[in-house]
Design a protein that fits this description.
Strand order of the largest sheet: 3-4-5
Helix content: 25-40%
Number of helices: 3
Order of helices and strands: EEHHEEEHEE
Mean pLDDT: 84
Radius of gyration: 22 Å
Distance between the termini: 4 Å
Strand content: 15-25%
Structural class: alpha+beta
Largest sheet: 3 strands, antiparallel
Length: 147
């Protein structure tokens, strides 16, 4: 992707992640059903209750640890005050949820492979797929992109 380098102000190309698809909660619940003794309905009930509990604990100001996946915590965006006494809660502009990746997600990135993918309209003539063959670099559908 073409972006301006903030230090040099020159334009350069940087890698961006491109999703290869998505998984829904129902698909994950079905996969858990196949690999456990729980039914999909049981898994969905537990996940719905888990969602409710996570939201409630975040509202209470708690850090919610998701095992080795990571942790969730509220973050705040506010205006500045010259002194501590001058700061008012009304200066808070927005709350957001911050995710901090845990060990298993950090480990999942080790050894990840990447390949260049092209937008179909930007595919060079030399990379145009032909019937019965393939290119070494594919149109946008992989997990990372350099364009």
């Amino acid at each position: 992707m073409k972006r301006k380098n903030p230090q040099t102000k020159a334009y350069a190309y940087y890698a961006i992640a491109v999703a290869s698809g998505e998984s829904t909660l129902n698909e994950i619940a079905s996969a858990i059903e196949r690999s456990s003794t729980c039914t999909r309905a049981d898994v969905m009930a537990v996940l719905a209750a888990y969602n409710d509990e996570v939201c409630e604990r975040l509202k209470q100001g708690q850090i919610v640890r998701l095992g080795d996946l990571g942790a969730l915590q509220f973050g705040l965006h506010s205006g500045a005050a010259a002194t501590e006494d001058a700061f008012q809660a009304t200066m808070i502009k927005k709350a957001s949820v911050c995710f901090h990746a845990g060990k298993s997600l950090k480990t999942a990135t080790i050894g990840a492979s990447f390949k260049r993918v092209y937008n179909k309209q930007d595919l060079p003539a030399s990379k145009t797929p032909t019937t019965g063959g393939s290119t070494s670099e594919t149109p946008k559908s992989a997990s990372a992109s350099e364009n």
